[in-house]
Amino acid sequence: MHFSQRFLNLKQLHPAWACLGLLLALLVAPVTQADVQPLDRVVAVVDDDIVMQSELDQRTIQIVNRMRQQNMPPPNLEVLRKRVLEQLVMESIQLQRATQAGIRISDNQLNETMARIAESNGMTLDQFQQALAEEGLSYAQAREQIRREMVVSRYQQRRVEARIAISDAEVEAYLQSAEGKSQTSEEYLLGHILIAAPEQPTQEQLAEIQAKARDLYQQLQQGANFQQLAMAHSDAQIALEGGSLGWRSAEQLPSLFVEVAPRLKVGEVAEPIVAGSGIHLIKLVDKRGGVSQIVEQSRTRHILIRPTEIRSEYEAQQLIGQLHKRITQGGESFADLAKAYSDDPASASAGGEMDWLNPGDTVPEFEKVMMASALGEVSKPFRTQFGWHILEVLERRQQDIGVQLQEAQVRQLLFRRKFEEELESWLREIREEAYVEIKEQA
């Protein structure tokens, strides 16, 4: 595989870098000395910036080379140059606006990105730099191109996200659609035993099949193998398959089982179900899909002390230590001290109390202390990226958050769909607003 093609997987690192792979692939394509033009000139004026002939030529050559490497026939050269010039114009418009909006990429952020790119290609950073050099691209050039793309991507996100709103009605409509149901419906794997009744059973026959069903049910409750009992005693057509009904959604279940199956736990056998055809025994062997997700939530309060320009790290640590002593040794109110001292405005006014927290809602350092704390115990001071904390877990509960997670996933899905549409619309708008003068036909 040609080295430049490896960058096409960059979009897997982060959605904001979806187009980096393409641009790097363009950059690393070789440019021969014969392709360099001796004279340069302005081919477009874009607001306060310009696009030079050399930029247009280089980008065009890179695209042609990349297409050849991928065994793709290049389009008509005149058409290609016009498209490349428009691409350069749009890049210039966005970069200028992003700079005016104060968007910057720090060296640390850029270094982390370069390291991730190298890692994704199975290289160390030194190997990555060497590979770029072998392709005729300096590491500095690659860094600059990636920096530009990160700036543009952040600006796009800032401006386009503000134009998108997902209503509750849209979420509900998606969940009720065929697509939504297919992605969220539960499926059940049921075992089935039928003790058939004659068409017109006598009281004696009914008593007999009821006794048999009750005996089989008791055996199953004591751990008997369902498949073996089904093969030996079931009158259903699927008896020789161990009574398995296979995976079925709720809509595909026999009407007798629709109300029963969803209430069973995996491995549980339902009470015998009496029907005209006889008596049925069903076992929920397994289930999959659906939205149920049980987590342990914690209701917690905390006090945060941040280091600031007028409060050093040492002073912040000393203050949180004093507050801890005042609560644990002096008997002062946690809530009163949180209101008076905490630097978390969202919780301070409520005496430090936070909403019910799910696993993953807080940074790892906070969650680790929270999960290790006994109810009513005030933790020792600890540090997170936000500052110094003490916390107290007031209550814990098991909660099914499947519905909330499902709705959040749907919102994200609908957001991604709308983002692509809004991005195209926004790009057209800023293109119309910009001053663009093409000096000559590309």
Quick overview of this protein structure:
The chain is an alpha+beta fold.
Largest sheet descriptor: 4 strands, antiparallel
CATH homology superfamily of the largest domain: Porin chaperone SurA, peptide-binding domain
Strand-and-helix sequence, N→C? HEEHHHHHHHEHHEEEEHHHHEEHE
The total count of helices amounts to: 15
Dominant shape: flat
Cα-based radius of gyration, to the nearest Å: 33 Å
Break the fold down into its secondary structure elements and pairings.
Elements (H helix, E strand, L loop, with lengths): L19 H9 L13 E5 L2 E4 H17 L7 H24 L6 H14 L4 H10 L4 H23 L6 H9 L1 H7 L1 E11 L6 H19 L4 H8 L10 E6 L23 E3 L2 E12 L4 E12 L7 H16 L5 H8 L3 H4 L15 H9 L9 E3 L2 E14 L1 H32 L2 E3 L4
Antiparallel strand pairs: 1-2, 1-10, 3-4, 3-6, 5-6, 7-9, 8-9
Helix pairs in contact: 1-2, 1-6, 2-3, 3-6, 6-15, 7-15
